[in-house]
């Protein structure tokens, strides 16, 4: 997914008059469209699958960040202890 400067930057007026074509383009090519207004980049038009993948990646990065903070604070457990606790909870059910 690389930006094609000729195809992937469009003024908002073009998006308004060609919305259906733009939807087809982003869904087929998986390239976001950068929307300009008065010559400045103002937004991004993105297919839903790429957007969902981006949200998933952000969520994963947040989990990693929390984990790194817990490790640096010494909030860690031995693998054996974690599995022992899990096995106990399973046996109690």
Q: What would you note in describing this structure?
A:
With 93 residues, the chain is of the alpha+beta class. The protein has 2 domains: 9-46; 49-92, no CATH class. The chain contains 4 helices and 3 strands, in the order E-H-H-E-E-H-H. It has a 3-stranded mixed sheet with strand order 1-2-3. The longest helix has 25 residues, at 48-72. The radius of gyration is 23 Å and the shape is elongated. The termini are far apart.
Biggest β-sheet: count, sense, barrel?
Answer: 3 strands, mixed
Shape: elongated
Helix/strand structural class: alpha+beta
Alpha carbon gyration radius: 23 Å
pLDDT < 50 stretches: none
What's the total helix number?
A: 4
Q: Write down how many β-strands occur, each being a DSSP E stretch of 2 or more residues.
A: 3
Topology overview:
Elements: E1 9-11, H1 12-17, H2 19-29, E2 33-37, E3 40-45, H3 48-72, H4 79-92
Parallel strand pairs: 1-2
Antiparallel strand pairs: 2-3
Provide a short characterization of the protein structure.
Helix content is 60%, strand content 15%. It has 93 residues and is an alpha+beta fold. The protein folds into two domains: 9-46; 49-92, no CATH class.
List its salient traits.
93 residues; single chain; 3-stranded mixed β-sheet; alpha+beta
């Amino acid at each position: 997914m690389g930006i094609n400067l000729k195809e992937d930057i469009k003024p908002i007026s073009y998006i308004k008059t060609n919305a259906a074509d733009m939807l087809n383009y982003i869904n087929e090519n998986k390239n976001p469209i950068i929307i300009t207004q008065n010559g400045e980049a103002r937004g991004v038009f993105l297919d839903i699958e790429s957007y969902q993948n981006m949200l998933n990646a952000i969520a994963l990065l947040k989990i990693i960040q929390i984990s790194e903070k817990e490790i640096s604070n010494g909030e860690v457990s031995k693998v054996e202890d974690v599995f022992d606790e899990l096995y106990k909870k399973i046996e109690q059910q």
